[in-house]
TrEMBL record:
Name under which the protein is recorded: Class II glutamine amidotransferase
Keyword Cell division on entry: no
Domain Glutamine amidotransferase type-2 stretches: 2-278
Source organism of the structure: Microbacterium candidum
Entry keywords, A to Z: Glutamine amidotransferase
Keyword Transmembrane helix: no
Entry-linked SUPFAM superfamilies: N-terminal nucleophile aminohydrolases (Ntn hydrolases)
Domain of life: Bacteria
PROSITE patterns: GATASE_TYPE_2 (PS51278)
Amino acid sequence: MCRWLAYTGEPIRPSALILDTQHSVVAMSLNSPLGAETVNGDGFGLGWYPEDAAGSPHPAVFRSIEPAWNDQNLREISRAVLSPLFFTHVRAAAGPPIQQTNCHPFRHENWLFMHNGAISQFGLIKRELTFAVDPALYTGIQGTTDTEVLFHLALTLGLMDDPVAAVGAAIRRVEEAGHAAGIPFPMQGTLAVSDGETLWAFRYSSQGRSRTLFHSADVPALRTMYPEAERLELFGDHAQVVVSEPLNDLPGVFLEVPESTVAVLDPTGYHHRPFLDA
């Protein structure tokens, strides 16, 4: 469907991961070995929290329907800004039209949200799910994707208070509606959510066969493993990356997030929690 990357840690220029890695996100937009589609050229997005936004983070978002590999503005912006937490996403449209409002990530106040995957046969249950969104949040839905509806459904169900519980409740609502409509496996995907301080990365599907998801190992441990890897000096001790597929081929650098799991990343490091595994 799509490919995405999220970073949290010491401020860096997003280009270090979006453009300059062996298997960068821009490279994935042209050739995604682990993706459902090889090419992800139906637009992209970059959302970032400014370096000086501590205490009251409000993310900036740049989205375009251009292929990521062909957009000079992405190169300019990703090399110019510094950010301690950013999202980037390259899209392979699975039904909703190619338009800027359908490009990820999506934003509400200080929250960012993006998704790789799909709500199966979304058109059959779109009306029910959309009408379940709080009327006060409904006007925030600008595009036509299942992801944006899922985001606003999670906001309705308490995302700003308990992200894990709210995303779980939103997915269960999708599954209930899907099963009632005769859809055997309604939910598929990996999701990223952040409030500007913590990053939550979910891997879940109704069928138990989710899209791939990985996160990086601790940077101090990687420096011990690869003492001659000069590139690691670009990153601070608290740097963490979550990505649809590894950014390089070095063993041990990227760890797979298990099925039905949420990875929680914050300044203390990362830990995994079971997610809807029942």
